[in-house]
Amino acid sequence: MGTLQVAMPTNQSEYIECNGFIAEINRTNRIKSATIKVEDGTVIVVVPRELPQERISKLLKDKNRWIKEKINLHRDAQPVSNKQYVSGESFPYLGRNYRLKVHQGFYQPIKLSNGRFTVTLLAGTDNPEMIRDSLLSWFKQHAEAKLIEKVKRYAAMLDVKCTSVGIKTYKSRWGSCRPEGDIDFNWKIIMAPNRIVDYVVAHELCHLIHHDHSPKFWREVERIMPNYAECKEWLKVNGAKLEL
């Protein structure tokens, strides 16, 4: 398996850098035994607050094969990318491109600061999948926060009630709305310009008024977003490019 390297960053998060993946450690007083989740290539270990580091390392070692299988299933399902995930490459967020900078040191997840994405890996670590997974985690977290913010704003303008906002990975759609008020968005939309994100949010919320794509539905979209046709065309032309 290789030697486990442990980092305890100043933001109170804990990460264990294993052979080929990073495990994020979440400590809590609400459980009595540790659990491991692998979601979209991200390994999250939820443990009792006082569980010794050695016990966590042993758990990861014992479950290494299972974790690797789950990660590989996720990676195999991802579309082929022409990215190499190295310093100098750029990735879009809200329509603006930010370059990636890879630092050496104890693992630190992706951050966006001073106009660039930064990630820190141990010296000698050459694992583009690890960097991609860190980027994916960052984009999903920020997509959720930004979309919730926009849903609140447009729901008030439309006088509709959204009961929940979820983040999904879709191949051919940007959102999904259920009559009960639950709306899911494709996290990739957060890579598009702000006006395009606004259009997708308004589009899904309008389905709480009209549950189809009838002329009445499009009139409602146009009322709240007069330039919706331009946004719709932008997605048609550029949507496939919104990939990590």
Assign the CATH class of the largest domain: Alpha Beta
| SSE succession | EEEEEHHEEEEHEEEHHH
Shape descriptor reads globular
What kind of sheet is the major sheet? 5 strands, mixed
Protein model, in words:
This protein is α/β, with parallel strands linked by helices and 244 residues long. It folds into 3 domains: 5-77, no CATH class; 90-137, no CATH class; 140-241, Zincin-like (2-Layer Sandwich), CATH 3.30.2010.10. The chain is 36% helix and 26% strand. It contains 6 helices and 12 strands. The strands form 3 sheets. It has a 5-stranded mixed sheet. It has a 4-stranded mixed sheet with strand order 6-7-9-8, covered by helices on one side. The protein has a 3-stranded mixed sheet with strand order 10-12-11, covered by helices on one side. Helix 3 (128-158) crosses helix 4 and helix 4 (194-206) packs across helix 5. Mean pLDDT is 88; it is low at 1-11.
SSE blueprint:
Elements: E1 5-7, E2 14-17, E3 22-28, E4 35-39, E5 42-48, H1 53-62, H2 64-77, E6 90-93, E7 96-104, E8 108-113, E9 116-121, H3 128-158, E10 164-168, E11 175-177, E12 182-186, H4 194-206, H5 215-224, H6 228-238
Parallel strand pairs: 3-5, 7-9, 10-12
Antiparallel strand pairs: 1-2, 2-3, 4-5, 6-7, 8-9, 11-12
